[in-house]
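The instructor's notes for this session suggest beginning with a concrete chain rather than abstract definitions. Hand out the sequence below and ask the class to guess, before any prediction is shown, which regions might be ordered.
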Amino acid sequence: MACPHKFQEYLTLEQLDFEPTTLIVGTFNPAWPAGNYAQWFYGRTNNNYFWDVLPRLYQADLNLRPGTVASWKQFCADKKIALTDMISSINDADQGVQLHNDKLANYTDAALATTFADFTFTDIVKLLRQHPTIKYVYLTRKPGISLFDDQWMLVENYGIEHGLHVRNLLTPSKYAFY
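After discussion, reveal the predicted structure:
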Protein backbone atom coordinates (compact mmCIF):
# COMPACT_ATOMS: atom_id res chain seq x y z
CA MET A 1 0.00 0.00 0.00
CA ALA A 2 1.45 3.35 -1.02
CA CYS A 3 2.10 6.09 1.52
CA PRO A 4 0.36 9.25 0.31
CA HIS A 5 1.28 12.76 1.36
CA LYS A 6 -0.54 13.72 4.55
CA PHE A 7 -1.88 16.90 2.93
CA GLN A 8 -2.44 15.49 -0.55
CA GLU A 9 -5.40 17.77 -1.26
CA TYR A 10 -3.18 20.87 -0.91
CA LEU A 11 -0.30 19.84 -3.18
CA THR A 12 -1.88 21.07 -6.42
CA LEU A 13 -2.85 24.48 -4.93
CA GLU A 14 -6.51 23.89 -5.79
CA GLN A 15 -7.48 24.79 -2.21
CA LEU A 16 -6.19 28.35 -2.58
CA ASP A 17 -8.61 31.25 -2.61
CA PHE A 18 -5.94 33.72 -3.75
CA GLU A 19 -3.38 33.96 -6.54
CA PRO A 20 0.05 33.26 -5.05
CA THR A 21 3.20 35.21 -5.85
CA THR A 22 5.51 32.90 -3.90
CA LEU A 23 5.71 29.11 -3.91
CA ILE A 24 7.57 27.30 -1.15
CA VAL A 25 8.35 23.68 -1.93
CA GLY A 26 9.19 21.05 0.67
CA THR A 27 9.89 17.38 0.16
CA PHE A 28 7.36 15.00 1.76
CA ASN A 29 5.06 14.64 4.76
CA PRO A 30 3.85 11.04 5.16
CA ALA A 31 0.22 10.20 5.93
CA TRP A 32 1.50 7.39 8.15
CA PRO A 33 2.82 6.25 10.59
CA ALA A 34 0.26 7.45 13.10
CA GLY A 35 2.86 9.41 15.08
CA ASN A 36 2.96 12.20 12.49
CA TYR A 37 1.19 14.92 14.45
CA ALA A 38 1.68 17.68 11.83
CA GLN A 39 -1.59 19.48 11.20
CA TRP A 40 -0.37 21.19 8.03
CA PHE A 41 2.87 21.91 6.17
CA TYR A 42 5.89 22.32 8.47
CA GLY A 43 3.59 21.47 11.35
CA ARG A 44 5.94 19.33 13.44
CA THR A 45 6.87 22.52 15.25
CA ASN A 46 8.85 20.91 18.07
CA ASN A 47 11.69 20.34 15.59
CA ASN A 48 10.95 22.77 12.76
CA TYR A 49 11.35 26.56 12.76
CA PHE A 50 9.57 27.36 9.51
CA TRP A 51 6.65 29.16 11.17
CA ASP A 52 9.05 31.14 13.33
CA VAL A 53 11.26 32.24 10.43
CA LEU A 54 8.72 32.83 7.65
CA PRO A 55 7.02 35.89 9.20
CA ARG A 56 10.40 37.53 9.78
CA LEU A 57 11.18 37.26 6.08
CA TYR A 58 8.14 39.48 5.56
CA GLN A 59 9.13 41.91 8.33
CA ALA A 60 6.26 40.65 10.48
CA ASP A 61 7.01 40.61 14.18
CA LEU A 62 5.22 37.31 14.68
CA ASN A 63 6.14 33.88 15.86
CA LEU A 64 3.63 31.57 14.22
CA ARG A 65 5.41 28.46 15.48
CA PRO A 66 3.00 28.02 18.40
CA GLY A 67 0.15 29.12 16.10
CA THR A 68 -2.74 27.23 14.62
CA VAL A 69 -3.36 25.88 11.14
CA ALA A 70 -5.83 28.74 10.66
CA SER A 71 -3.18 31.34 11.57
CA TRP A 72 -0.62 29.70 9.25
CA LYS A 73 -3.07 29.63 6.36
CA GLN A 74 -4.12 33.23 7.00
CA PHE A 75 -0.52 34.43 6.99
CA CYS A 76 0.07 32.62 3.71
CA ALA A 77 -3.07 34.10 2.18
CA ASP A 78 -2.16 37.61 3.37
CA LYS A 79 1.33 37.32 1.92
CA LYS A 80 0.22 35.33 -1.17
CA ILE A 81 2.39 32.31 -0.30
CA ALA A 82 1.51 28.84 -1.54
CA LEU A 83 3.01 25.67 -0.07
CA THR A 84 3.53 22.30 -1.69
CA ASP A 85 5.90 19.34 -1.54
CA MET A 86 7.87 17.50 -4.22
CA ILE A 87 6.56 14.02 -3.46
CA SER A 88 2.84 13.27 -3.45
CA SER A 89 3.21 9.57 -2.65
CA ILE A 90 5.73 6.83 -2.07
CA ASN A 91 4.30 3.96 -4.05
CA ASP A 92 6.54 1.13 -2.81
CA ALA A 93 6.00 1.92 0.88
CA ASP A 94 4.13 -0.77 2.78
CA GLN A 95 2.51 0.07 6.10
CA GLY A 96 2.87 -3.57 7.14
CA VAL A 97 6.67 -3.39 6.91
CA GLN A 98 8.23 -2.05 10.12
CA LEU A 99 11.33 -0.77 8.33
CA HIS A 100 9.12 1.40 6.12
CA ASN A 101 7.29 2.80 9.14
CA ASP A 102 10.59 3.51 10.86
CA LYS A 103 12.08 5.28 7.84
CA LEU A 104 8.96 7.38 7.27
CA ALA A 105 8.81 8.30 10.97
CA ASN A 106 12.41 9.52 10.69
CA TYR A 107 11.19 12.39 8.43
CA THR A 108 14.54 12.69 6.67
CA ASP A 109 15.00 13.08 2.95
CA ALA A 110 17.98 10.75 2.97
CA ALA A 111 15.88 7.95 4.51
CA LEU A 112 13.27 8.38 1.77
CA ALA A 113 15.85 8.41 -1.01
CA THR A 114 17.72 5.32 0.22
CA THR A 115 14.76 3.18 1.32
CA PHE A 116 12.21 3.67 -1.44
CA ALA A 117 12.40 3.69 -5.24
CA ASP A 118 8.89 4.36 -6.58
CA PHE A 119 7.62 7.92 -6.15
CA THR A 120 4.83 10.05 -7.56
CA PHE A 121 6.06 13.61 -7.79
CA THR A 122 4.04 16.79 -7.65
CA ASP A 123 4.36 18.51 -11.01
CA ILE A 124 5.82 21.81 -9.81
CA VAL A 125 6.35 23.11 -13.34
CA LYS A 126 2.67 22.50 -14.08
CA LEU A 127 1.75 24.48 -10.96
CA LEU A 128 3.91 27.36 -12.17
CA ARG A 129 2.20 27.28 -15.56
CA GLN A 130 -1.24 27.24 -13.91
CA HIS A 131 -0.31 30.12 -11.60
CA PRO A 132 1.63 32.69 -13.66
CA THR A 133 1.41 35.11 -10.73
CA ILE A 134 4.12 33.06 -8.98
CA LYS A 135 7.42 34.89 -9.40
CA TYR A 136 9.39 33.44 -6.46
CA VAL A 137 10.00 29.73 -5.91
CA TYR A 138 11.94 28.29 -2.98
CA LEU A 139 12.89 24.75 -2.06
CA THR A 140 13.41 24.20 1.67
CA ARG A 141 16.46 22.00 1.35
CA LYS A 142 19.96 22.31 -0.01
CA PRO A 143 21.18 20.17 -2.92
CA GLY A 144 22.81 16.84 -2.26
CA ILE A 145 20.26 14.06 -2.76
CA SER A 146 19.79 13.23 -6.43
CA LEU A 147 16.15 12.16 -5.95
CA PHE A 148 15.26 15.75 -5.08
CA ASP A 149 18.00 17.47 -7.08
CA ASP A 150 16.77 15.92 -10.33
CA GLN A 151 13.21 17.11 -9.73
CA TRP A 152 14.38 20.55 -8.65
CA MET A 153 16.49 20.95 -11.80
CA LEU A 154 13.26 20.86 -13.84
CA VAL A 155 11.91 23.75 -11.74
CA GLU A 156 15.16 25.70 -11.98
CA ASN A 157 15.26 25.31 -15.77
CA TYR A 158 11.64 26.46 -16.08
CA GLY A 159 12.41 29.40 -13.80
CA ILE A 160 15.40 30.47 -15.90
CA GLU A 161 13.32 30.26 -19.09
CA HIS A 162 10.50 32.33 -17.57
CA GLY A 163 12.38 34.88 -15.48
CA LEU A 164 11.41 33.48 -12.07
CA HIS A 165 13.44 33.86 -8.90
CA VAL A 166 14.19 30.21 -7.98
CA ARG A 167 16.40 29.38 -4.97
CA ASN A 168 17.29 26.65 -2.51
CA LEU A 169 16.97 27.44 1.19
CA LEU A 170 18.36 25.70 4.21
CA THR A 171 15.86 23.33 5.71
CA PRO A 172 14.04 24.89 8.68
CA SER A 173 14.57 21.70 10.69
CA LYS A 174 16.33 22.14 14.01
CA TYR A 175 18.57 19.25 12.97
CA ALA A 176 19.97 21.16 10.00
CA PHE A 177 23.63 22.00 9.92
CA TYR A 178 26.09 23.48 7.46
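Then share the key points. The two ends are 36 Å apart (CA to CA). The CA atoms of residues 125 and 150 lie 13 Å apart.
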